Amino acid sequence: MALVPARCLKMFAGLAALFTATVTLAPNAAEAQPSLVIVVRHGEKQPTPANDPSLSEAGVARAHALDSALAHLSPSTIVVSATKRTPETAAVVAKRVGVTPTVIPLQGPHVKNVADAVMKASGVVLVVGHSNTVPAIVNALGGPKLPDICDASYATMFTVVPARDGKPAQVLRSSYGKADAVGADQCPGMTAR
């Protein structure tokens, strides 16, 4: 996977439109499957409370940057966890497109439940997860097995074109908003969310 600027999403938006048109012309193809899935980690968070913090000022800016990065896309489904920071990250996009996010609790088989919700959707889907769930969600959607995202990393965006008709999923790793600090991607043994 190559790290490329968020402006490449325009290309993926075009591919998604072409893909959606192809599926529309062939109604027997897997109808309830998204054409494009955007998976991001929540924005920067407040230091307290430790169990469920809201977004920090930088996190709110990241939520606006997410909307800017997705300006050419209109997600029909938005999937978040039950923590404050994931729906807060999706809020600007959700307001723009008029979609109420689907909340998937972190308890139980969270990643499977998110992947199931995504694969039942159609069109463009936005998923806002956590440092330890985003890579697993990408993998559950047919992407490669990836390490957890470091706790200091917030700018990573995965664009997934799901597997279809025997073709493997395509995954693009890019970034959006303010760049992560140098070294933010080096975190051996990281387990924080």
Would you write up a description of this structure?
This protein has five helices and seven strands; from the N terminus they run βαβαβαβαβαββ. It has helices spanning 9-25, 57-69, 85-97, 110-120, 134-140; strands at residues 3-5, 34-41, 77-81, 102-104, 123-129, 156-161, 170-175. Strands 1-7-6-2-5-3-4 form a seven-stranded mixed beta sheet, sandwiched between helices. Helix 2 runs parallel beside helix 3. The two termini are 23 Å apart. Residues 1-7 and 11-30 have low confidence and may be disordered.
How many strand units? 7
Structural class: alpha/beta
Give the integer mean of the pLDDT values.
Answer: 86
Summarize the amount of helix as a percent range.
25-40%
Largest beta sheet: strand ordering: 1-7-6-2-5-3-4
Following the backbone from N to C, one meets helices and strands in this order, namely: EHEHEHEHEHEE
Give the CA-CA distance, first to last residue: 23 Å
Specify the overall morphology: globular
How much of the residues is beta strand, in percent? Answer: 15-25%
The tally of helices reads: 5
Low-confidence stretches: 1-7, 11-30
| Major sheet description | 7 strands, mixed
Query: Radius of gyration over alpha carbons?
Result: 16 Å
Short recap of the structure:
With 193 residues, the protein is an alpha/beta fold. 32% of the residues lie in helices and 20% in strands. A hairpin with an 8-residue loop joins strand 6 and strand 7.
